[in-house]
Amino acid sequence: MSSTESTRHPRRPWALPSAVAQEFDPSRVGRGPRRTVRDWFADFTCFGAAVLLGMMGADAISSNPHVSQDLADFDQVVGAFACAAVWLRRRWPVGLAIAMVPVGLASDTAGGAAAVALFTLAVHRPFRYVAWIGAASIAVIPFAYRLRPDADASYGVSIVFGVLVSLTVIGWGMFVRSRRQLLLSLHDRALRAENEAALRAEQAQRLAREEIAREMHDVLAHRLTLLSVHAGALEFRPDAPRPEIVRAAGVIRESAHEALQDLRQVIGVLRGGDTETPGRPQPTLAALDALVSECREAGMKVVLDSRVPDPGAVPAALGRTAYRIAQEALTNARKHAPGAEVAVTVTGAPGEGLKLTVRNPAPPGDVPRVPGSGQGLIGLTERASLAGGRLGHHALPGGGFHLEAWLPWAS
Q1: What is the pTM of this model?
Q2: Closest residue by Cα to residue 110 from 51, 63, 158, 65
Q3: Residue 221: its pLDDT value, please?
C-alpha cells in the first residue's frame, strides 16, 4: 500500500467520528456516513445523559409544589419521548433541535434531551443554525420558569442558571466542531505535504535518471562510434595492409572493452539505486589531452589548442561538461567527416567563462553511413543550458561543421 493510501485509510477508523472517518474513505463519498464504534459509544453516552438529566428533572417536577400531579405526569411522558428522539440527532440535527425548543418549554424532563439536541446542532452544523436555534432556546427559558417556577431558587436565579447551561452546551459543541475541523485541516495539510514530497522525490529520481542516461549516451556513443567507423573501414577496404587491419582490430577490441566497462558501471548505479555511487573517476578538462590522444590513435586528425593555463584548476562540474561536449563533438566529426582535420580550441579564465570550439572542414572522400539517433546535439545544448551556458552550431560552406559552447566560470 502506498503512503498516500495509508494516509487515506488510517489504521484505527473505528476510533474516529463518522464525519471525520468519511474523509479518510473515498468510497463513502456521496453516501451517508457509516457509524463507527466511537459513534455508537457517543450515541449511548448522549442517550444516557439525556435519561439521567430527565430523571433528575422528573424528580424535581414531582416534588415541585407549584406543579400539579397531572402536569407532572404529562411532563414525564413528554420527557420520555424526547429522550427516545435523541437517537435521531445524527440524521436530523436541525429538525430535532427545532422540535426541542417547544418541547423544552413544555417539559422539564425533556431538558436533558434538549441540551443534547443543542450540543449536536453545534457540532454538526454551521454557526448560523446554532445562532438562531440557540437564541430561540434561550428566549423560551423565562417562559418555562414562569409556567413552572423552581421550588428552591428565585425566578431570576433560575433564568441566569438556565442561560448559562445553554451557553455552556453551545460553546462545548462549537469547540468540538472546531477541533474536528482542525483535525481535517491538519490531515489535508499532511496529505498535501506527503504528495508534494512524493512528487519532489519522483522528480529528483527522474532528473537523476536523465543525468545517467545523458552520461551513458556521451560515453557509449564515443566508444561505439569507434567500433562503427573502424568496422566500416574494414568493410570498405578489405584489401588494406595488414598493419592497418591489426590497428583497426585493436581499436575495435579496446573500444568494445571500454564500452562494456562503462555499461557495467551505469547498470551498477541503477541497480544500487544510488546515483552517487563511486565508480570510475569522472573526466574533467584535464582529461581532454587524453581524449585527443585516444582519437589520434584511432586514426583521427585532431589539433588541440588549449589556452587555459591550468586545466586542473577548472571546477570539476565545469570541466566535466566541457569534456563531454568535446567528446560528443569529436564523435560526430568522426562519424560524419572521417579523414578531415578537426580543430579543438579551449579558452577562458575565472570570471570570463570557458569557451570551447570544435571545427572541421568537409570530409576528403566518401563517408560511410553510420547510424545515429540525432539526439547528440540536442543533448549537448541541454547540457550547456543546465550548466548556465549556451551552445551553438552550424554547417560551414562546402560541407564543414562548426560547434561553439560557452560555459560560466565563476571567479
Answers
A1: 0.46
A2: 51
A3: 67
Q: Which three cell numbers stand for residue 344?
A: 579543438
**If DSSP states are collapsed to H, E and C, what string results for the chain?**
CCHHHHHHCCCCHHHCCHHHHHHHCHHHCCCCCCCCHHHHHHHHHHHHHHHHHHHHHHHHHHCCCCCCHHHHHHHHHHHHHHHHHHHHCCCCHHHHHHHHHHHHHHCCCCHHHHHHHHHHHHHHCCHHHHHHHHHHHHHCHHHHHHHCCCCCCCHHHHHHHHHHHHHHHHHHHHHHHHHHHHHHHHHHHHHHHHHHHHHHHHHHHHHHHHHHHHHHHHHHHHHHHHHHHHHHHHHHCCCCCHHHHHHHHHHHHHHHHHHHHHHHHHHHHHHHCCCCCCCCCCCCHHHHHHHHHHHHHCCCEEEEEECCCCHHHCCHHHHHHHHHHHHHHHHHHHHHCCCCEEEEEEEEECCCEEEEEEEECCCCCCCCCCCCCCCHHHHHHHHHHHCCCEEEEEECCCCCEEEEEEECCCC
How far is residue 8's CA from residue 29's CA, in Å, rounded to a whole number? 13
Cβ contacts of 202-208, under 8 Å, gap ≥ 24: 208/275
CATH architecture of 284-411: 2-Layer Sandwich (3.30)
pLDDT at 343: 94
Integer CA distances (angstroms), 224 to 125, 278, 372, in order: 72, 24, 11
pLDDT of residue 372: 56
pLDDT the model gives residue 4: 42
> Which cell numbers hold the place of 213?
542516461
Retrieve residue 360's grid coordinates: 572541421
Residue type present at position 84: A
CA dist 198 and 364 (Å) reads: 55
**What integer pLDDT is reported at residue 356 of this predicted model?**
94
User: Which residue intervals of the chain bear CATH 3.30.565.10?
Assistant: 284-411
pLDDT at position 312: 84
- Per-run averaged pLDDT (10 residues), the chain, 411 residues: 43 52 50 69 83 80 73 82 85 87 83 86 87 88 80 80 87 88 87 88 77 68 68 69 75 74 66 50 83 84 90 87 89 84 92 92 72 68 87 88 92 77
| pLDDT at position 255 | 72
